[in-house]
């Protein structure tokens, strides 16, 4: 029944924001930030369960932990960047939002650099000199 | 067949992870980038038996690289570059100490030549080079060349004076010596020569050169080839011994 709590929180926050928005747009923005952070915190426990399950699975099946670590990093970067970008976008700062997204993209690609290095090195070794 | 089942398990798990991540990714903006990294991870898993065959296991290197990224260590902090820097510093230090030893040796030689032969020595230059063993380790130094510049006419009367007083000086391995006799242009007051005629003058210089070369090569156990003597004579061609 947690979904009802989340949706209820969201609805109440939306109504409040609509009421406040005309008088004090700044407070409306703060309210939106607080609501999204609260929902995020609410979900963190559940995300922890899922991640622990994945880790157990990886350990039992003998998958190298480094792969799981990379995958989880991707999820983390994607979620945080997306959340920040959306909050900023709600406040009307489209350009800053796109910069946050750019940062997320670059950080995800940086994770790929060592992998690409290893693959390219192997391919070069496979090719006859 | 053990590695095959391990590999299959690995591939299946990684593909499952990737599908899961693809599902829970938020929004469209980062989807393409996340997919690229995920597909690279799958590719790496598929290739891992080949990689293991050719180089060390990819997981360790990946972990190292990721750790380096996380801690923000620059590339220079890696061991090889530190060792290379140390090697460079060592070389500089060695060449400096060789230079210093060469100048000390030259000073001692100058004093000795002056005392033993009575020649007025203007300058002595000694070039040392490090000798290296086969494993590139430093073993000692060789004298590569000795340049003696005489400044004036010989003064035979003084020659015997200081001969007894010299202390032997401990010097590490000296292997080869080269002595070239050349007429120098430093000082022109050696003016006895014209009066006695060319022949006599050149004979006298030759004798002086031979004396010095003989002394140095005996005293320092050098091959005469390494010693070069510059005479302050005018109008005389270079002579080589």
Structure write-up:
The complex is a heterodimer of chains A (129) and B (241). By secondary structure, chain A is mainly α. Chain A has a domain at 64-128. In chain A, 90% of the residues lie in helices and 0% in strands. Chain A contains 4 helices and no strands. Chain A has helices at residues 2-21, 25-61, 65-90, 94-126. Among the domains of chain B are: 1-56; 73-152 and 211-235, GMP Synthetase, Chain A, domain 3 (2-Layer Sandwich), CATH 3.30.300. The termini of chain B are far apart. Chain B has 241 residues and is an alpha/beta fold. Chain A binds chain B through residues 54, 57-58, 61-64, 66-71, 74-75, 77-79, 81-83, 85-86, 101, 104-105, 108-119, 121-122, 125-126, and chain B through 6, 9-10, 12-14, 17-18, 20-21, 24-27, 29-30, 33-34, 36-38, 40-41, 43-45, 47, 50-51, 54-55, 58-59, 61-63, 65-66, 69. Chain A: The chain crosses the membrane at residues 6-21, 26-45, 65-85, 106-127. Chain A: It comes from Paenibacillus lactis. Chain A: Keywords: Membrane, Transmembrane, Transmembrane helix. Chain A: InterPro entries: Spore_III_AC/AD, Spore_III_AD. Chain A: This is Stage III sporulation protein AD. Chain B: Pfam families: Spore_III_AF.
